[in-house]
Amino acid sequence: MRETASDIDGAGLKLRGISKSFGNLQALSRMDLSVPRGELMALLGPSGCGKSTTLRIIAGFEQPDTGKVLIAGKDVVHLPPNRRGLGMVFQDYSLFPHMTVAENVGFGLKIAGLARAEIAKRVREALKLVQLSGRDDYFPTQLSGGQQQRAALARSLIMRPSLLLLDEPLGALDKNLRENMQFELRRIQRTMDITTVMVTHDQEEALTLADRIAVMVDGRVLQVGTPLEVYESPANRVVAEFLGTANIFEGVADRHTIRVALGDRTEVLAAQPELRDGAVLLGIRPEKMWISGERNSRGNAVAGTVIGHVFRGTAHVYEVEVGPNLAPVQVLEQANSRHDTRVYSLGTSVWIGWRPEDAFVFPAEREGRA
Amino acid sequence: MLTHRAVERLINGGLLFYTLAFSIFMLAPILIVVIVAFSANSYVSFPIENWSWRWFQRLYEYRPYFDSFVVTLKLAVLSAFFACLLGVPAALVLSRSRGKFANAVMTFMLSPLSIPSIVLGFAMLFYLSRIGLGVSFISLLIAHVVASIPYIVRTVGGQYRSMTPGFEESAMILGCNGWQTFWYVTFPMIRGAILAGAIFALIISIDNVSLSLFFSSPTTATLPVVMLSYLESSFDPSIAAASTVQLIIAVVLLFVIERLYGLRGITG
């Protein structure tokens, strides 16, 4: 989406060849990343993938072994954290327990030596932005989790940082609050037009909040793209399986056709123009598949037997067996209206299928790291 | 057949009895000392026939008692202060460092807890005499500081370890340098622990006999030392009165710690 902007020097954040090891453990190996001005980039990966180390290197709490951290075009590797002009919200918010909300939010300005009246004015503005007006004299323990998070956000934003770092921003909130805060966080980030890097292991959090996602595994960035790109066209099996569920089949590509031993079929269609011939993996997300009692003539269709079914409120999820040596295929069907959705009971013979353009294909050798 | 619940009750009842009996066994002598302090007799006896305050008055009038009490208080306050000055920075550094060296230093700083104070006192007397300090208030102070440091290190270190690094890191991100981070964030958050450790140091110092004995002279004798030598020549209720005063100081200070910090932090 904004690839061209990322090439402009002097804006946003750039990581160039960052390596870091702790003893024998290689936490990051020659990592590159560009975050254009105003973008919200999510570093997504399982724990231990190096995403938190990356954040701590950007903040200045860790020194990289090699590489550069460019913030607004300037290498800040040798600057201490207090001179990098960043904002950071920690997972547990780390609001100072001995200060009121207003004192917490105004703390950075006080350290910067601003006049008391100016601080009071900007604290008022910041609290208004995060909808905490009137809570000035509360202590952090008197606030709910969501309010604490907003206070921590205000404390960072009041400094007008050139870059905002968020460590698992919604991790400590319960589910309902989480959904509210997703919108809230996005609104504030857009209003402030502030370049943001967020670390998360929660794929939903990354998909909903980020402009772009960098999927990290074992200290490497496996793919960078918009939520749509990484979800719809994952670069490899690890990315495909980390972001949601994927049915993955082994096959052989031969001129836009992929041969997969699937049920009674050995050939399926794929719409991947750049597909190179050879061993490939073919993936389809459960919600991209259809399930029906009759054979649908369009696209790929395979016969199978329902061996599992769960109802998830908004959808039915089926497990369908399509072959003796194949993992069951997951199919998700939206529960549209109460009357027109047929529920297939266990043991029913069904047809499942997908449109060729909804599948993603990647060369089989790239799954090596899974 | 006993039901599960009945067995549980029996066990609980047994435990309660044991605890009570044990407490009485431990506390009764102390209680008797306090009662004896109010006796009008000129010898220690129990039960009391006539009550009086005369032995508390004697405490005030008998010079060695009064002078040594002043020395004891001065020593306690100064040793707590210097123990904080040395112990707090050490606790902060050591509780965030890992590795063999940090562990070794930590063990070393806590070692006065496990070394018999006779050994510690003898070693310190020998050492301090060699470097020319000998039997003096300074030597006494140094010995007490050494004995107090472990309490400061334990309370402050414990509190600091329970404080996630995020607080200090937030302060740094918000523009604080090292000193500002300490002054505005770390110090306010460990203040309670410092105070609790300092009070514990006071109690340890006021109470100490074995170290003080080594550095005792007419001008540096502490109250417990004077009491001990008084006991050698006479045995009257003034000893009980002095013990009662000490006891009250300790109880009040312990109560303050419990309020500030919780005793578990030190004993646990």
Automatic annotation (TrEMBL), chain A:
Subunit structure, briefly?
The complex is composed of two ATP-binding proteins (PotA), two transmembrane proteins (PotB and PotC) and a solute-binding protein (PotD).
Question: Per its UniProt entry, what is the enzyme's top EC class, as one word?
Answer: translocase
Q: Which SUPFAM superfamilies match?
A: MOP-like, P-loop containing nucleoside triphosphate hydrolases
The job of this chain, per UniProt, is described as: Part of the ABC transporter complex PotABCD involved in spermidine/putrescine import. Responsible for energy coupling to the transport system.
UniProt-listed Enzyme Commission number(s): 7.6.2.11
Q: Would you tell me the protein name for this molecule?
A: Spermidine/putrescine import ATP-binding protein PotA
Catalysed reaction, written as an equation: ATP + H2O + polyamine-[polyamine-binding protein]Side 1 = ADP + phosphate + polyamineSide 2 + [polyamine-binding protein]Side 1
Q: Which GO terms describe its cellular component?
A: ATP-binding cassette (ABC) transporter complex
- PROSITE patterns with a match to the protein in the record: ABC_TRANSPORTER_1, ABC_TRANSPORTER_2
* Keywords from the UniProt entry: ATP-binding, Cell membrane, Membrane, Nucleotide-binding, Translocase, Transport
**Where is the ABC transporter domain positioned along the sequence?**
13-243
Per the record, the similarity remark reads: Belongs to the ABC transporter superfamily. Spermidine/putrescine importer (TC 3.A.1.11.1) family.
Look up keyword Membrane and say if it applies: yes
GO molecular function terms listed in the Swiss-Prot or TrEMBL record: ABC-type polyamine transporter activity; ATP binding; ATP hydrolysis activity
User: Could you tell me which InterPro entries the record lists for this protein?
Assistant: AAA+_ATPase (IPR003593), ABC_SmlMolc_Importer (IPR050093), ABC_transporter-like_ATP-bd (IPR003439), ABC_transporter-like_CS (IPR017871), Mo/tungstate-bd_C_term_dom (IPR008995), P-loop_NTPase (IPR027417), PotA-like (IPR005893), Transp-assoc_OB_typ2 (IPR013611)
UniProtKB/TrEMBL annotation, chain B:
Domain ABC transmembrane type-1, chain residue ranges per copy: 69-257
The region annotated as signal peptide is: none
Its keywords, alphabetically, are: Cell inner membrane, Cell membrane, Membrane, Transmembrane, Transmembrane helix, Transport
Which Pfam families did the record assign? BPD_transp_1
Membrane topology according to the record: Multi-pass membrane protein
Read off the PANTHER family from this record: INNER MEMBRANE ABC TRANSPORTER PERMEASE PROTEIN YDCV (PTHR43357)
Entry's family note: Belongs to the binding-protein-dependent transport system permease family.
Q: What is this protein called?
A: Binding-protein-dependent transport systems inner membrane component
- Origin organism is Chelativorans sp. (strain BNC1)
- Membrane spanning segments where? 15-44, 65-92, 104-128, 135-153, 182-204, 237-257
Q: Write out the GO cellular component annotations.
A: plasma membrane
